[in-house]
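Q: Here's a chain of 316 amino acids. Please give me its 3D structure as tokens.
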Amino acid sequence: MDGAPVSRETEAVPSQNLPETTTEKKVVGVRRLKEAMPTPTKTRIFTVANQKGGVGKTTSAVNIAAALAMGGLKVLVIDLDPQGNACTALGADRNKTPGMFEVLVDEVPLAQTIQKVPGFAALECAPANRELAGAEIAMVSFVARESILKSALLDYMSEREAAGNRLDYVIIDCPPSLGLLTINALAATEEVLVPIQCEYYSLEGISLLMETLGKIRKALNPLVRVSTIVLTMFDSRTRLANDVADDVRRHFPQELIDIPIPRAVRISEAPSFNQTVMTYDASSPGAIAYLGVAREIAARGVVGESVSQTEGVKYP
């Protein structure tokens, strides 16, 4: 975009003896922000969910995670979507280690799945392997099947804390459904981040998610709530996008981070190079917007800003 703002917050710390290539655009060095983000008082676990597909769940999960990690925070991304798109964006090898299928079905410790994300000092990924597509069927007969992820995650977090290496953020990327995988994620978290594409169908998706959260609160996790809403694929030139944004501002004034993520080619291009937009083009409008969202999330974690309960909100 001509005249787009250029971020001067990022700097690359060069790595030595890295091979050069002309066929791929690889991350060279370690990306950090000049101004670090505040550390939360305890590990914050976010589930990124919306029953509607194609609203930018994975894109938001990986780019917010990358921005937080660039801010000096220790971040783990759990890819719970069998499509494995978060793995692609983070450059994780789905065949290198056991994946989330083994964690949920075979009781493999989460620590055995963790992969370091290249280009970041403290960003890690627990990958979704292809077998994860059959996990829900395999888990049907399990006792407490809705809480398997919660148990595995708590064990891993306890190990990290005992070693003096506490995680600051865990971000769980969910499939576009409200099945057993998503229920496991909601049972393991206190905060839900909902990306809303600026179209009407996304509003219907969040209404259904609110109903599911009400059931989860009663049966599994009384602490879970929608704490953060992000507007994605925003095109200010269209009346519909502006109308949807106004609707969300009216219904969710405390939860909304009012930094819309624009429709941007760079955001779409980045995964094809196994990168987030934060390393692919840190000066692009999309990267700048996600950086702003991540800073607001980090600031809310320190301030401990109260978030209203939003159950029962419906759209016509």
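Q: Can you summarize the key feature?
A: Residues 1-8, 13-24, 305-316 have pLDDT under 50 and may be disordered.
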